[in-house]
Amino acid sequence: MAKENKQNFVEQIADMEKDFPQWYTDVVLKTKLVDYGPVKGTMVIRPYGYAIWENIQRELDNRFKATGHENAYFPLLIPMSYFTKEAEHVEGFAPEVAVVTHAGGEELAEPLAIRPTSETIFGNMYSKWLQSYRDLPIKINQWANVMRWEKTTRPFLRTSEFLWQEGHTAHSSEEEAMEETMNMLGVYKEFAENCLAIPVITGRKTEKEKFAGAVATFGMEAMMKDGKSLQAGTTHYLGQNFAKAFDIKYLDKDGAQKLAYTTSWGVSTRLIGALIMAHGDQRGLILPPKVAPVQVVIVPIAAKKGNVMEVCAELKQKLESAGVRVKLDDSDQSPGWKFNEWEMKGVPLRIELGPRDIEEGKALIFRRDTLEKQAVALDCIESEVKNLLAAVQKDMLEAARVRRDGRIVYATDLAGILDGVEKGNFVKAGWCGCRECEDKIKAETAATARVFAEGETSKTCAVCGKKAKHIVIFARAY
Amino acid sequence: MAKENKQNFVEQIADMEKDFPQWYTDVVLKTKLVDYGPVKGTMVIRPYGYAIWENIQRELDNRFKATGHENAYFPLLIPMSYFTKEAEHVEGFAPEVAVVTHAGGEELAEPLAIRPTSETIFGNMYSKWLQSYRDLPIKINQWANVMRWEKTTRPFLRTSEFLWQEGHTAHSSEEEAMEETMNMLGVYKEFAENCLAIPVITGRKTEKEKFAGAVATFGMEAMMKDGKSLQAGTTHYLGQNFAKAFDIKYLDKDGAQKLAYTTSWGVSTRLIGALIMAHGDQRGLILPPKVAPVQVVIVPIAAKKGNVMEVCAELKQKLESAGVRVKLDDSDQSPGWKFNEWEMKGVPLRIELGPRDIEEGKALIFRRDTLEKQAVALDCIESEVKNLLAAVQKDMLEAARVRRDGRIVYATDLAGILDGVEKGNFVKAGWCGCRECEDKIKAETAATARVFAEGETSKTCAVCGKKAKHIVIFARAY
């Protein structure tokens, strides 16, 4: 496990065309992003995977703070009775909860839930803190672990414990709370596209797919390379549901006690799964520069000849000073082995540097996303590397967009939806708005309503033929 | 709770000389660092408290990475059976563990512990990952929540859940593992002194006070303003105890299978408690600039007159661009109210700026640590603020050092130890090394052995009069 042998990695990773799930498992384990924890359904996020998460955190955290949010930390354990205060919420989450019944050698008077999400405990504290209209809005985020006991688990995509951020805000009006809900959806979309290079479709979710306890849920959906959709983030307009359940009230200017309007929103370590499946190829990961733990790897060629190692070390120093995350692979493996290893690990750029290159004052740069190689003069290599990193970031988004847009089709009936999703497409279709038709689509095509699509409403529901209320993106989903 | 009224805060905070514990409680609640969670013994770290933790994290994380450590994330839940693998470890931690017995609506086959510390699960994974001597050293840290069910709790100092970092490393030799143990103790000390402005005494702990499962524990002890000691961080040399328990083995160069040597080390949100009690005064917090959420607060005087608010806003902009964390208090409270509020919150510098100051091209700067006020010319205010922040940081450490050094006394017998600690001192005394004498000191003085002190061994044990093996710092402790 710890040392890879010198075989060709291409042979070790399952064929993504033939067995996409096995390809995924091979990639996450072999690149050491993650390992299975001893308790079923748990994962250990290894340093290479965690470094991606740290980059994601930094990018998002900057955006949250720039939009006026503060971080805090709320307790892991929530009294079970809190969940029962919001009827839909308890129905949605109770079946997945892990429960602490004993502590300090004694049985507890009330069992405690490990948070599956924290609306209830934020609600409880907001009720205590909020007194006057002057205290509003309250805009707090937390970075935390949460736990949802799942039957079928896969690293990053669905695990009993995962890491996430959850924003919880309280406002004085419906308009302001809805604006927050939509703003954060916009922040997520901008982040997904500009940092993860993943184009996403954002929109409202159906009643069936919404968060338990919300008035309305909005999601962003990303297409994976097998044509399935991955819900990469959600924002919830909670109306006064939790304000009522937890008595989140304030004294308004007019002297009246009023209930606040609340929102919540979150993204999780699932995003790492999205990165893998939106960009990866048969050689392994392809990471966008903005979140790649290593942006450039330098591989010395004929490392023992002349001053190769010195020049490589100088180049490393230079790039580091220029703010590039760079790794010099000075291990005793062969260049070919190193090429495979770092391609598998998805490093955006590889610089190859040997005695002849140094003589000629150049280096070869390999782009992981396009597999193209070019010679670059050593004396302008920093700016060239920076330009190339920017180009990779941009081109990866564009390539993902082209891939996805080529796989969005339209359907006017159930057969069309089935045909579309079986071919690995997102299918746009009209929907009357009734639960029966939505359930029928799921039963017959294994596709679910992802989000309402923008644009004009199509004329009829693909199932019942009645007047359509919405155009919906249907897809099979993770 | 949410809005403070305009009373004088000095009257609202208990007298620190008369009732230090109440002073502490008043300060942590009134400055909104923390609140009590709904489950007994838990805390909500509020934005102002969490911002201190973020600054602590950033400073430490940089130091960990600079010394070759990587971050990762290991699961919260640990099979109970893991704890029984290391005999001392289970004895030390089992009584404090919170246990999950039910999840997903079913009773679990094996109860799961919420991690009180993660040696066992790191050990389990290191055993799987470690194969060859080439894989060593393994140097991983994690930032996580942990849980220890405590009977008596106080925010930051002792809570059932707290946040911390825990480093876990594996090495090929005793020397290297011991070097890591001492290096990290050095990192903690440098951080405590240069960032928290808290002088610490580092040294080895007695067998009685060591970590359950360690060969040797080293701690850093800080003096609080009541003369009690706070253990602010520990590093543990674990020898091969956990390597044996979890089979952490590797194939060495010579073809033999060998056990690794491991270490662990951690600091927690306790450090925030240390900051409060090492520096605070009757007006509230005094925060060192390096970890203060707000380093400078600007208070406009006669804010509605002339261009006061514009000049204040410009100044804020200027200081922000210079990398200073600055807050402009443009609320409608009176300047006096704001002075009290931000003094209580421990902001290192306050800038007062009114119409006459603007006319004269100057501002008044108030130092929270010395309570001194000085006039500064507006056109060189950025550099002056930076100099003052550096001076506050340095002077706070120096002041704390003088306070502490004036309260280290020597004793040659039990009565001397009792007298010393009753007067709020650290007491240095000789100790023969036997458990009976250590227990007797605790029973009769309520002081514990904090760490072995540097320097020559005194001649005799303060209890039994036999030859002393160590000089020990005895103190009452948090």
Describe the protein.
The structure is a homodimer of 478-residue chains. With 478 residues, chain A is α+β, with helices and mostly antiparallel strands. Chain A folds into 3 domains: 9-279, 2-Layer Sandwich (BirA Bifunctional Protein, domain 2); 296-389, 3-Layer(aba) Sandwich (Rossmann fold), CATH 3.40.50; 408-475, 2-Layer Sandwich (Translation Initiation Factor IF3), CATH 3.30.110.30. Chain A is 35% helix and 27% strand. Chain A has 15 helices and 23 strands. Chain A has helices at 9-12, 20-30, 47-66, 80-83, 87-93, 119-129, 174-194, 241-246, 270-279, 308-321, 335-344, 355-360, 381-405, 414-422, 435-445, and strands at residues 34-36, 43-45, 70-71, 77-79, 98-103, 106-114, 138-147, 161-171, 200-204, 216-223, 229-239, 249-251, 257-259, 261-268, 296-300, 326-328, 349-353, 362-367, 373-377, 408-410, 426-431, 448-452, 470-475. A 7-stranded mixed β-sheet of chain A has the order 3-7-8-14-11-10-9, sandwiched between helices. Chain A has a 5-stranded mixed β-sheet with strand order 16-15-17-18-19, with helices on both faces. A 4-stranded mixed β-sheet of chain A has the order 20-21-23-22, covered by helices on one side. In chain A, helix 10 links the parallel strand 15 and strand 16. The longest helix of chain A has 25 residues, at 381-405. Chain A is globular, with a radius of gyration of 25 Å. Chains A and B meet through strand 2, helix 3, strand 3, strand 4 and strand 5 of A and strand 2, helix 3, strand 3, strand 4 and strand 5 of B. Strand 5 (98-103) of chain A pairs antiparallel with strand 5 (98-103) of chain B, so a sheet runs across the interface.
